[in-house]
Structure formats: structure tokens, C-alpha cells
Amino acid sequence: MKNKLSEEFKNRFDAEPLFYASAGRINLIGEHTDYNGGFVFPGAIDKVIMAAIAPNDTDKVRMYSIDIDDYAEFGLNEADAPEASWARYIFGVCREILKRGGVVKGFNAVFAGNVPLGAGLSSSAALESCFAFALNDLFNDNQIDKFELAKIGQSTEHNYCGVNCGIMDQFASVMGQKGKLMRLDCRSMEFEYFPFNPEGYELVLIDSRVKHELADSPYNKRRQSCERVAKRLGIETLRDATMEMLDSIRTDITAEDYFRAKFVIEEKSRVLAVCDALNAGDYETVGKKMYETHHGLSYDYEVSCEELDFLNDIAKECGVSGSRIMGGGFGGCTINLVKKDLRDSFIKTAKAKFNEKYGHEPSVYPVVISDGAHKEE
């Protein structure tokens, strides 16, 4: 990818660039916990957005996206926002740095990536993080700390792309380290690294290539359920709830609200159990907790779908150590912790059975936990 970027940059701008990259991400466990003040457990992966960049001594940004073969040019004032949606991500990063008192000057850039689009691996966060890291290095002597770079990416989504996202995707993309997952406390924003060196295992994403269109707003409805239960318990979020507390008010709330809250409370415990298991190198317990999360997402939180449950069942039948929905639900991927000697047969079986039932093969993405945003030497 670096050679392709270098060649394209020299052809377009007749100059030597610097190279920067940032990663997509997975979340091993901890789903629908962020807005409940709980924990998430992401890591950066070996699928990246990479950019070739150099200052151009003007007040203009000149950008070319190799993957979609499109060019954009824009100034750095609020009124200069570009039309193209992909360019707004980079414009937003520039503006958010400037709003914080940072420096951004005109630059030329060419970028490309191998983060699969639409698979829930956060290609947009990788794009934001790549440019936030690069502009911090080029124009600010790296004076903006990494956590603030993640917030710059999040603010870009909120203010320039119309997505009211949490911090997890950008956090993982910026802060990721090879061979480590991160437990992020979504209430305090404190985080801790945990070793992820699963010798004898691999992480494999199976993408159903399905996304169900929903008539209502299921995410908002679930969030409202959680907020109603927290209010009834007299606490700020379900982070502070226990199953004993929930059971004590079971007759006062709807069955739907009870099961939504049950999932969130149990998921908090699963994340902490996975932390202990990783420290002990116990990947079979990690896998068991992943299956428990899938069951909770399917039956208590009801954000799965037929295709994802089918993939989860195939994983069990094939002896896969752990499998669950990854992401908000209603389509997308399962994330699977697979023993290496089962990997090929599992993928072959999943492809064949899914194709037989649904008329298309799922996409398969092996992933390795890798470094987040960095300068390519």
C-alpha cells in the first residue's frame, strides 16, 4: 500500500510525502455498555487507513482518495466545508484541531485503506485517527495528547458527519497496541491494557453481509429501557446496578425493561471476568464468555437476527472456542475465537452452510491485534 500511495502522491503533487496510518478495531466483549456507563474491551487490528501527506505552503487542503477515485480541495475555515462526505471527515478533523487552539496549515494528501467497509470495523474512525495523528505530528510537534486525538475524531463525527457516536472506535484506533486489548471505563474514561497473545488461537470475523432495515429506532428504545430501570433504582446508570437490585423491582417494571437491564448488568460482569481470564492466559474462559454475550444479545437484548444466530450455531457445531455478534446488531459480523487447527474447516463449513441457507457466502476477515495510529518509517 505504501508504494502505491508514494507513486500516486508523486504523480499528483510532485513531492516526497511522509506516511501515517491508523487502524480499524474490534471489540472483544462489552456491547451496549458504553451508554450505560460500563466497560468496553476493544483493540486495534491489522487493517488500516494509510495516508501520504506533505505541507503545501498554502491555506488549502488537496486530497485524493485512491479507493473511491475522487479528489477534493477545501480551505480551513468553517465556511469551506466540502460537499463529498468522505472529505468532510478530514475537514472535520482539521476544524476540531483548530477549535482546540492547535495549528493546521495547507497540505496535500493521498490515502487508501484495507479496512473492510460496512463490516463494523470502524473505517471512519481509522480515517479520522490517521489524519488527527498526522496533523498533530506535522504542525503541532505532537503536543496534543493521544486521548484528545480520539476526542477530535469523535467530535468530527458529531459536528461534521451527523453521527452521535461514543468514544470507543476512535479510542481504539488511536491508542491500540500490538498484542494488547484495552478495557475502557466509559464513565471515568480510565483505561488499562491487557495482554492478548492467544497462541494456538486466531480471531476470525465472519461478515453476514446482511443489514436489516428497521422500521423503528431499536437502539433508542433499548437505551430508554435502561434509563427507565436506572431511574427506578435511583442510580445514574446501570453500571451501578446488581442483579439483586434488579430482581427487587422486577414486579414494578415491564418484562422488556427487566431483560434489557439484565443483559447490561451481566455484561459488566462478563467483561471483568474476561480481564481476569486474559491475565491468566485462559482463552477457553474468554470464549465461553463470548458465547454468553451472544446469548444475552439474542434473547435478552434482542438485537441479533436469524443470520447471526445461524453463524453462532455453526461456530458451536464446529467446536469454535468463542463466538458472538460484534456491534450494534441486526446484521454485520460475528467475532470468533478459533483454535488454529479448526480454522480452515470452520471457515469452509460456515461459507458452505450459510450459502446453502441464504444464497450468498459470508465474507471472512482474519484479524490480528496490532498498533493504532502511528507514523510509518
UniProtKB/TrEMBL annotation:
What's a single GO CC term here? cytosol
Q: Which is one GO molecular function term here?
A: metal ion binding
One GO biological process this protein is involved in is: galactose metabolic process
Residues forming the Galactokinase N-terminal domain are 7-55
Residue stretches making up the GHMP kinase N-terminal domain: 89-177
Q: Specify the superkingdom.
A: Bacteria
**EC?**
2.7.1.6
Spell out the Pfam families in the cross-references: GalKase_gal_bdg (PF10509), GHMP_kinases_C (PF08544), GHMP_kinases_N (PF00288)
Which terms are listed as keywords in the entry? ATP-binding, Carbohydrate metabolism, Cytoplasm, Galactose metabolism, Kinase, Magnesium, Metal-binding, Nucleotide-binding, Transferase
Q: Does the keyword DNA repair apply?
A: no
Annotated ranges, domain GHMP kinase C-terminal: 277-350
Which Gene3D superfamilies would you find in this protein's record?
Answer: 3.30.230.10, GHMP kinase, C-terminal domain (3.30.70.890)
Q: Which SUPFAM superfamilies match?
A: GHMP Kinase, C-terminal domain, Ribosomal protein S5 domain 2-like
Family of this protein: Belongs to the GHMP kinase family. GalK subfamily.
Q: Which NCBIfam families match?
A: gal_kin
Protein's name in the database: Galactokinase
**Species whose genome carries this gene:** Paramuribaculum intestinale
